[in-house]
Amino acid sequence: MKEKLTKNTILKFNLELLFSLLLLFHFNPIFSQKYELVTQPLYGYYDGGRGGNASFFLNDKSIAIDYNGKEIHFENEKYSENILMINPERFRSTLKTTKNNISFDEKGRHLFPDSLSLRYFRKDSIQVVSHNRKDGVLDYHGKIILPIIYDDIKGDYDERLVTKIGKKRQILNKFGNILFEFYDKYDNSNIYLEKNNGFVIIKDTNNRYYWFDKNLKLTEKIYERTINEKSGLFKSTYDLNSQVIIPPIYDHVIGCGSNIYIVSNGNNYALFNSNGSVLIDFYKYKSFGRFINGLMLVQNNENKFGYIDTLGRVKIPFIFDSATDFNSYKKVAVVKRNGKVSVIDLLGNNLISFKYDEINLGEDFLYVKTNNLWGLMNWNGKEITELKYEGISSLSSQKGISVVKKNSKYGLVNFRGKEILPLEYDFIQQYQGEGVIVHIKNKQGIVDKDGKFIVPAIYDEIQIFVNFGMYPKNYFVYSQNGKYGILKLKD
């Protein structure tokens, strides 16, 4: 009997060990087709903080890991700080000898002399370096684009460069070609490069602004300006002068859309147009919203809310206890009367009856609440789930899917109201891809947009790389027993 019991115990132990190994090395065919471990969990890991350049460690030494899981080792004794990864071909650290920041390739070869110091590295294009308080620009391989003679070099995400040398300013592209240069008028001026529309904005020493379009041609632009702590409205003109539209005698001048400006003095507000004419004088209304789809939310002196057009005419009467600006995408607003909320269109028509305590607008759904419980409603006004959830929110990276919460557990609901992931998870975390990271019983895994597991919830932690330029978006850091590795989702 004793011998049989011992054999059964050994058999049971072997079966449990085999099962653990199947999970660890993912011979399970359900998951092995969906993801793979690029490395085993062997490393220490630093996520790079705000800078986003991460570093792995092995035996207390910084190393890098390429896309295929190959370790890249460096002469760590040269450096006084961690070796941080810019991308799988480029790295940076600080030299012990010169205290300079240095960049180098995967074989440890420095991309420029040790006497220079790296200011910043655009992931796959240029490096700005400095020496003796002078700046220069190198290409990805360390070849000089701009010599190290400039007093200052700044860049933007469109890879334009603003340089200063003496009184001369230049704007150049990443190849060092001059796009624009100037001397006298803008001495000691501040220069701003707008990311979205390509404008170059120059602010001179008298706080006057000048706008240049993406072709670097001077253009007229209206802007707010503060002089002696008072605000006004001005226009930059082609002859490099500023025309006063609203004199700088007010507390604030704020654009609210449709070339109309809210002007405040204390708690009193007025509306002016871009010609400086008064549309609505002070004291008539208590507050203003923004012009969206041609209508502005306004609060009158009886604390009721309504909407006016760009000529100041009342288009939706002042009958609401509270209201929101119109949603520019759906062209609706949430309004409240007698403690209940509804949704109205641009004509003021009620699209939903006044029976809910709260309504939030999502891209795919309306989130409605009554008696502290939430549910989903489609844009036709039909409830597609019961109002039974403690909380509900959209996933910005997942169209048509919402995270729901009940009894302090989380799940997923699709656009039909079906719970595609049961309410049994401790937390759900989104990432920029077609899935979510789920937390359950102190373990984490990845679920796809259909609620099916891509990566089983067997890891202590799964996290995205802060700097997406380091690895493709389907690569993740995972940990087990305090050690880190890399996994990737298969296409």
Write the layout of secondary structure elements.
Layout: H1 2-25, H2 29-32, E1 35-37, E2 44-46, E3 55-58, E4 61-65, E5 71-73, E6 84-87, E7 90-94, E8 101-105, E9 117-121, E10 126-131, E11 134-139, E12 144-150, E13 152-155, E14 161-165, E15 168-172, E16 178-182, E17 190-193, E18 200-203, E19 209-212, E20 218-219, E21 221-227, E22 230-236, E23 242-250, E24 252-255, E25 260-265, E26 268-273, E27 278-280, E28 285-292, E29 295-300, E30 305-308, E31 314-320, E32 322-323, E33 333-337, E34 340-344, E35 358-361, E36 366-370, E37 373-377, E38 391-394, E39 401-406, E40 409-414, E41 419-425, E42 427-430, E43 435-440, E44 443-448, E45 453-459, E46 461-464, E47 475-480, E48 483-489
Antiparallel strand pairs: 1-48, 2-3, 3-4, 4-5, 6-7, 7-8, 9-10, 10-11, 11-12, 13-14, 14-15, 15-16, 17-18, 18-19, 19-20, 21-22, 22-23, 24-25, 25-26, 26-27, 28-29, 29-30, 30-31, 32-33, 33-34, 35-36, 36-37, 38-39, 39-40, 40-41, 42-43, 43-44, 44-45, 46-47, 47-48
